[in-house]
Amino acid sequence: MADNANVRLGEAGGISVIDFGAFLNGSQKQAVADAMLTSFKDSGFVYLINHGLPQDRIDSMFEWSKAFFALPMEKKMLSPHPSSGTHHRGYSAPGVEKVTQHVYDADELAKHRAKAPDVKESFESGREDDPHMPNIWPPEGVIPGFKEASLDFYWTCRAISLDILRAMALGLSLPEEYFLQYHSAAENQLRILHYPSVPVQKLRDEEVVRIGAHSDFGTITLLLQDKVGGLEVEDPNKPGSFNSAPPIEGALIVNAGDTMMRWTNDIVRSTIHRVRAPPNITTEDGMTPERYSIPYFLAADFSTLIDCIPGTYSEERPKYEPVTVKEYILNRLAVTY
Fold it and tell me: Which domain of life is it from (predicted)?
């Protein structure tokens, strides 16, 4: 194992901050890979500095996000998210989606849905030729340039995601290209999110929720967040206890999803996380600032059978039952709407 002391820059909220530039330029690939795997084992998350995603493109996508969500509701509703959660594209108004964890019992699902709704609005897009989930764009002339900017950012994020998969493979002592063979179809999702301003006390009392506690269901998630904060990650050593994952300027947050957890037979964590009121917030009017974030969900090809990587299981460590990506992800998406 390579010495990763000089690629790990510290931590925030119990999550390692790592210089990914040393992987991209080839100078310390194994050290970065090892440090990342350690962070994914410990917390399921990692902050990456020098991640290769150009800052001007990040800034531009946030501006497009603000422009879209500033449109009148009737304009945003011209590209509505279908009522079925299995077609995860288009615009969702505040309170429509209720992010859920593994809830398959009908009575339990009904109880979960009866809880406070997620007070956020979102817009999802993917690749243009996706046969499973075709994009649902605003009509031409509503917000010129939005579609092109979203697609450009989608493919830019995919390129960075593949570099991260290469590092994860090295950390797991696999060939660097191992995971890429299962991610050739770009079955991914770009989501822009807006959290309207709400009373701080209502968030703290859970009368309203920004995003409830959940894990992601793909391979990895890239997250860009503004300076407001509010992301919280469950402490793996204290179930039910959450730590703040504060914004770090210039950093990309990456977390492992359920698919990666199953692939590695729980060596890599898919950690529960949520969005609540920003920590230590003080406002004269008692309202939280509005918040914007951009997650990019990387998923393996829908036809991929997720079976535990050889060497991650034994008689003492039984493995997960194999499942196709399509079956797993569509089941999870279906219960969010």
Answer: Eukaryota
